[in-house]
Write a structure and sequence with these properties.
The chain has 438 residues and is of the alpha/beta class. It has 16 helices and 19 strands. The protein has three domains: 72 residues, 3-Layer(aba) Sandwich (Rossmann fold); 201 residues, UDP-N-acetylmuramoyl-L-alanine:D-glutamate ligase, CATH 3.40.1190; 141 residues, Alpha-Beta Complex (Protein-Tyrosine Phosphatase, Chain A), CATH 3.90.190. The strands form four sheets. Strands 6-7-5-8-9-10 form a six-stranded parallel sheet, with helices on both faces. Strands 14-15-19-16-17-18 form a six-stranded mixed sheet, with helices on both faces. A four-stranded parallel sheet has the order 2-1-3-4, sandwiched between helices. A hairpin with a 2-residue loop joins strand 11 and strand 12. The protein is globular and about 70 Å long.
């Protein structure tokens, strides 16, 4: 849907988070609709019915699931529905063809990947912008001409798009957000829907090592694989271009070997754009890692504390554990999200560097049960903590006693119900760690 389609219409904005607020401000500033009606779920069903009876078009915010019963009823009524992401992409494709949107998504690593890409583009002198789930809301980027817009898209934003970015990259695909999508299969299909409306000449980059991505993207045209031996790929702590070594993880400020896998995708895009890969790698040596993503917090008594609060799946925690060679304690737990912790526990069993696991919050018992079932190493200890402060304190004590030097906070689950978001959760971890100094 284009912005002109909202002209003189009564527009209902459903959900007033950052995107909904940005949409309201943009539409008011440009005097586009005849009326703007704002609704949040807390306003109740009667207010929703009243708003639906008055509106011509709905702008859905990402927090509003397309599967929720109230939204399904709206669709049955035949009301037109769009979103900030869809308005943005439709406008770019129709009216700003010189601007290329590079959309990056995935279950983990999309924020860091899109930030790396923006850093490269900016340092190469391209007129670039950063938007979506990170940076500015996409609708705020309309009205100015760019060479490239590096945009992060969540599965919530991608689920019902009618337009796609010219270039798409997927980092990986595993089970998260199953409640919003009402199942893992829906989640996967909604995630890759980001590329469903690509046109001739557009391209989609997918991680060649991710079997789920290969399965769900199998019917797409113009797929290019990355992280494969003949091209840009990662091997452990090293980044390679075929048989040529480009860099080592220690050359960069960010942590996490998995970031080299994602970087091979970012550099594949850079090469596709005709830019110099070597110069791009060199520019990334000044890239500052994002907070709450394998973030180094502090070193106390020889123990390094890592904040990976953005971790919302067991696979993310496994990736975090793979990223370090130190003897470690891992702290995990959040709300129940229908996760399977079998592989998480098996990884701990097969990796003696993991000496301690601390579980907590709602899904802590499920994690602990999986660990008890699959981990039998005599040099390993399981701790079921009362809260995060208790968990951090006990992890610190136990890993020091075991001769280890790392505490990794990788929750494996969403934070809702305990914290407002993963940032607040990560900040709490940071403050607890800092209090250990006192």
């Amino acid at each position: 849907m284009l912005l002109k389609d909202l002209q003189n219409k009564k527009v209902l904005i459903w959900g007033m988070g950052s995107e909904g607020t940005a949409a309201k401000n943009y539409l008011e500033r440009h005097d586009i609709p005849a009326e703007i009606i704002c609704y949040e779920d807390k306003d109740g069903p009667e207010r929703l019915e009243e708003a639906l009876a008055r509106c011509d078009v709905i702008i859905r915010s990402p927090g509003v699931s397309i599967y929720k019963d109230e939204f399904q009823k709206v669709r049955h009524r035949g009301l037109k529905v769009t979103s900030c992401s869809d308005l943005f992409l439709s406008e770019i494709r129709a009216n700003h063809p010189q601007t290329k949107v590079i959309g990056i998504s995935g279950s983990k690593g999309k924020s860091t990947s899109v930030s790396m890409l923006y850093h490269i583009l900016h340092n190469a002198g391209r007129k670039a912008a950063l938007g979506g789930n990170i940076g500015k809301p996409l609708i705020e980027l309309l009205g100015e001409e760019y060479d490239y817009i590096a945009a992060e898209f969540s599965s919530y934003q991608a689920s019902d798009l009618t337009a796609s970015p010219q270039i798409v990259m997927f980092t990986n695909l595993f089970s998260v957000h199953t409640d919003w999508h009402r199942g893992h299969d829906n989640y996967c299909k909604d995630k890759i829907h980001l590329a469903a409306n690509q046109k001739e000449g557009d391209v989609c980059f997918i991680n060649g090592r991710d079997s789920q991505l290969k399965f769900y993207c199998g019917g797409m045209d113009d797929i290019k694989y990355y992280d494969e031996p003949e091209g840009l790929h990662a091997e452990g702590r090293e980044l390679w271009d075929g048989s040529k070594k480009l860099a080592d993880i220690d050359d960069f400020k960010f942590s996490g070997n998995h970031n080299l896998d994602n970087l091979s995708g970012v550099l594949s895009i850079v090469r596709f754009l005709g830019m110099d890969v070597g110069k791009a790698v060199e520019s990334l040596k000044s890239f500052e890692p994002l907070p709450h993503r394998l973030q180094k917090v502090a070193e106390i008594d020889g123990v390094l504390f890592i904040n990976d609060s953005i971790s919302t799946a067991p696979e993310a925690a496994i990736g975090g554990m793979k990223s370090f060679d130190d003897k470690m304690a891992i702290i995990s737990g959040g709300i129940e999200n229908q996760q399977d912790y079998t592989e998480y526990a098996r990884f701990i069993q097969d990796n003696p560097k993991v000496k301690v696991a601390v579980t907590l919050f709602q899904c802590g018992k499920q994690i602990a049960d999986s660990i008890r079932k699959y981990v039998s190493r005599p040099d390993f200890e399981l701790i079921e903590a009362d809260n995060l402060r208790d968990g951090v304190t006990r992890a610190f004590e136990k890993i020091k006693a075991a001769g280890g030097s790392l505490v990794l906070f990788s929750p494996t689950a969403p934070s809702f119900g305990y914290y407002k978001n993963f940032m607040e959760r990560g900040d709490d971890f940071i403050n607890i760690v800092k209090s250990l100094h006192q």
